[in-house]
Amino acid sequence: MAASIVRTPQWDDSYEQQFIAIPPLGNEVKLYLTHREDPHVESNTMVQLHLRKGFDNIQCSSYLTTQPGVLGVGSITGTVSIFNIKDQTIPEIHLRPKQPRPCNAIAFNMTNMVAVGYDKGRQDNSLQIWDIEESLRIRAGAEVTSSISTGLSTSTGLRHRAPVSSYLPNEAVLSTSFFTDSEYNLICGSYKFLRQIDLRSDAPVFQMATKCTLGLTMDPFQPNLFQSYSEDGSLAIWDRRKLTVSGGSGGHGASQKTSSSGSNSIVITESPVLQFNKLLSELPVRKIHNSCIRYSTMRRGEFAAIFNGDLIRRWHTGIVPASAENYSVGSGAGGAGGASDIALSTISEQSNSETNPVLQSLKTQASKLYRSNEDSIFVSMVLDNKTDYEKVVSFDYSPDLNSHTSTNFVCMRQSGTVFRMPVVESIEGLDFNPSNEFTIVGPEGTLTNFVSQDVGNNHQNIMDKSLKSLEKLTIKHRMRRPSDRHNPGLNGYGNYGGGKNNDGDDDDDDDDYDIETEELSTTVDDGDQSIINGGDTNREIDYRRASTDEDLVPLNKLLRPDDIFKNDICLVIKRRAAMGYALDPEINYQILQELDPNDYQLSLRNTWKWLGLAKKSLEKGTMVSEGIDLGYQGVLGIWNGAEALNDQKRIMSTGGPISNAWYTQAVRAITAAKGKKISGIHIPVNSEKKSLRKLCLIVSGWYLTEDEFEEKLQLLVSMGYVTKAAGWAVFHGNISKAIEILSESKKERYRLMATAVAGYLAYKDTNVNSPWKDQCRKMASEMDDPYLRAIFAFIADDDWWDVLDEHSLPLRERIGVAIRFLSDKDLTVYLNRIADTNVHRGELEGLILTGITSKGIDLLQSYVDRTSDVQTAALMAAFACPRYFTDPRVKHWIDSYRAMLNSWGMFKVRAKLDVARTKLSKSLNGRTTIQATPKQFYLQCTRCNKNISKPKLINMGQQAGGFNTANNQMLLKQFSKASNKRNEIVSSCPHCGTPLPRCAICLMSLGSLIPSTDAIERVHSNLTSSKPLAVKNNFKSWFSFCLSCNHCYHAHHAEEWFSKHYKCPVPDCDCQCNSK
């Protein structure tokens, strides 16, 4: 037989566990004990306690649970030896069949009876039951009254006594086991059948044809479940309650006596509750017969098996309980089988009433696949654990002292050595709360990780540290074209340069869509360092100086786990919301600048800059003309014309669809309003869409007068952005200006480049390929700076496509070049191509191209998929949705963001968001596309149960209960945003005239102002017109109620009273109002 090691839980000595081990040779039996010097400290030491030798090829073994030390082994000759391994002086008991043959299985029950399974014999049954106590009593006579109670006493064993009962002639018994909840019932398996035997009956309770008859093992936590496997490695889990109709099959008192009727019981199903086909097929065929499969003694529903001698695979199973209604029907004597009959009969009756045979067939199949009246077992998890040593042939579970659910294994190797190993457990449950704190649950307990309160304080330090660490990570592997690393930002795009410096009057229409140059905090030294766009210098890495010791950086050196949690998008969103990140683009721009001073997310900031300018332009009406609203339209939408607008609500009147002529007329009117700034724009003469090109340049912010352009170039040069200024000059078609800028630089290499660029003026009119052009092409592919690459690529072939293919340039600059120099056909192709690319990548800077349109929502969806920043997507989409169009994705983002704010308790921020969204949804004709959120509460009169703040609709001059319409208006004004008549007093219900309750402190009506408020307001009205102070003073007179004692106060009086007292100010009232 294969080696075996089995834990004996009933033999445990306090916190020490005992294991029975049979080495691979099968000639001895050992008893091992775990050894811990400190009961509170886990140890993997194993100590051999006892040893019993002298056996011949042990085939099977089992132990007696009621008497520690007593166990039995079966040999290949059929002899069963029962002995006490803890006492060598007590002789063995030997049980032998009539004909010598291999002993395949042995099992003890709780009353000192042993079942032995043999190979097939000619004149002897294969399943024999022996009563050890009875045999010892006959042998020892009156001297031994209870052999087992004295440790098998002094008997030398019985050699010729017959078993008390035997079963199954002419058939081999391969495995057997007693049910843990019944001393008279056992299960046994032969080559083709599983049978349940009741020792009080001559016939089996049931028999069932199956190949899974080996290794019968009972579930220690669920006595009705047992498992077996077949020679092909298939494993099955059975529920004995579903195997018979008879109610007396399980040894439950009197019902057992009526279970046997001399014939086999009817079998309802031959299918196990859970089956794994060829689960153990990875084992060699010769070893499958003796496979090592163990049920866990610590965890309910877990079992494990050994594979390849170095892998223990564990299966966790769970049970879906039967529905309460159906389960109660099937419970009782019949178990689940009776419930199944009722369910089947009910379905059968329903099916007979159906005339459709297809429906009847479907119902029948469904009833067989899923039965809600039965428990259903499923596999919840499968875990693999590598053993500490190879060639493991047997194992068993070993509990852990520190945790009742933690797992250890005691294993036996092929050499017979025994070792104990811990199992590295994985967590079983993980849940995050809205603050990014999480709790993990596992076998070793529960752990909650709390985020520290200084999350927002060290955010920038974390970002700086992560950047420095990433720069050191695998330097050699990060060598690539410098164009791919020109910007250390997360999105890889620079800022929008160009446009007028927006420090003038906001009412000036000429600053629409002008995007000012970023203020650069990075100082530029005189070293050999390239300057790039985007407000940051190119951090070049000298690869030649890279030390080989820094090639590899451990992962834990990049970021600590706490830093990772603090930079999670969940906390980033919360941090922004707390700082006021909402629907004001200018405030959002400032917040991002404060959170991200090093321009790690420059494209996000510039997108808000573009949205802010688009919002200003729309509010001033410069993007509305001829009844067409072009607010928040991008370059692509404007270029595509009327066809891009007809699926949106862009017209102010209820006229028909927008025609091309109507659209062209509106565009011309918008561009004409720009005056001299548009006159200086140079576009292709042969273009048929000149007005559209001009408006596209306006929307992209790429339009400047000559003076403004000159000022912008001087600003860039003064800030050290020489190559960027030269690139802008080329992008505007002024090569001479680019040469001048480079030649005036203090750096020698820029002056040399100016000489090289000057060659363009000599070769621009020739098509002959020259060495100068070859050198320009070579430099265009080798330069680090994207602007220099673009300049040399253009002057080499005089082709603007070479500039547009330089993806390191900001998108806005490439769009400006395309609008200025490409033909109408090429421009259409180019705009659609880069729009699709930006939508696919989710680059926010692409919104300048798509606008807040349906295509822009596709871009935002890709952005959310990439970053999970649902906050930004919801806020940006709210500017145009549902004002111009509706999209279910936007609604989902808004609802998700609102739910996040509510989960953080940021109700004020959520309320302001709702108000701002409602304002943004208002079209130019004054119609609001979002229904305002209704009031959540109101004051109700205790007499007429009507809303006090809602005036009663009566005719002019008519009075009701002495309260006229003027009083109604006074009450409304008193609790509105602004009320100039604060000395007017409303003290009764506008519907029934019932006086309002009085303040329990000042005894004045709650509808009146508190006495000191008038004087305060008169003083402050003369000094200042501060609105927040007026609101604060108005709040002092608001109603305040105690929901426990129902007493009322002015809010200001209640605040003053409960700052010094705990109890209610009303006499004889002991209510602690402020503690409720």
Describe the protein's architecture and organization.
37% of the residues are buried. Among the domains are: 324-374, no CATH class; 598-868, no CATH class; 997-1075, no CATH class. Strand 22 (302-307) and strand 23 (311-320) form a beta hairpin. A four-stranded antiparallel beta sheet has the order 1-2-3-4, with no helix packed on it. A four-stranded antiparallel beta sheet has the order 5-6-7-8, with no helix packed on it. A four-stranded antiparallel beta sheet has the order 9-10-11-12. The chain has 32 helices and 34 strands. It is elongated and about 120 Å long. It has 1076 residues and is α+β, with helices and mostly antiparallel strands. Helix 19 runs antiparallel to helix 20.
Please outline what is shown here.
By secondary structure, this protein is an alpha+beta fold. It contains 32 helices and 34 strands. Helices cover about 30% and strands about 15% of the residues.
Please tally the β strands and state the result.
34
**N-to-C terminal Cα separation, in Å?**
74 Å
Helix and strand composition category:
alpha+beta
The biggest sheet amounts to: 4 strands, antiparallel
SS summary, helix count: 32
Q: State which percent range the strand residues make up.
A: 15-25%
Q: Strands of the biggest beta sheet: in what spatial order?
A: 1-2-3-4
Rough outline:
elongated
Portion of residues within helices: 25-40%
Report mean pLDDT, rounded to a whole number.
Answer: 76
Question: Which radius of gyration do the C-alpha atoms yield?
Answer: 44 Å
Low-confidence residue ranges? 138-160, 245-265, 325-354, 455-511, 515-552, 954-984, 1013-1020, 1022-1031
